[in-house]
Amino acid sequence: MEREILFRGKTSFGAWVYGDLVHDAFNGTSQRIEVGIRARNSYPVEVIPETVGQFTGLTDKNGVRIFEGDVIKTLLPKCSFWGYDKDIWKTGAVKYEEDYGSFIYEWEYSKNQHHETLTCDAAFLGEVIGNIHDKKQEE
């Protein structure tokens, strides 16, 4: 099975572009760009570096690809071992955690920050409801 390596980034005019991540490249003219995304058979498009995120390899319950920076809402089923006496819906942002070598999502419950590895189960039960970059622009 082949793993798909895909990135996305947001342009200064608000469009998301998807493809390969490039650094210090030409955009098809003599203009040099610091960070860009190159879609198949095209020149790189400059993106805002802070918005670049990698595809996690997972999709949500609706088949939407999950990228770093996405906000997902997923179900934490009732579990007496962890002290949850009811199903809990949690919302968290996806990021890559170097210490764990994996994608995680961070969420808050009872005013405490938690994080978990982004698993197939969490993705299958959850859905992408936005991303941290669009939210920051709206504020």
Name the poorly predicted regions: none
What is the number of beta strands?
A: 11
Succession of helices and strands: EEEEEEEEEEHEH
Strand order of the largest sheet: 4-3-2-1-5-6
What is the makeup of the main sheet? 6 strands, antiparallel
Task: Identify the notable features of this structure and list them briefly.
6-stranded antiparallel β-sheet; mainly beta; 139 residues; 5-stranded antiparallel β-sheet; single chain
Structural summary, described in words:
This protein is mainly beta and 139 residues long. 9% of the residues lie in helices and 50% in strands. The chain has helices at residues 120-125, 132-138; strands at 7-10, 16-26, 32-38, 45-46, 53-59, 65-67, 70-76, 88-97, 102-109, 112-117, 127-131. It starts with 6 loop residues before the first strand and ends with a helix.
Task: Sum this structure up briefly.
With 139 residues, the protein is mainly β.
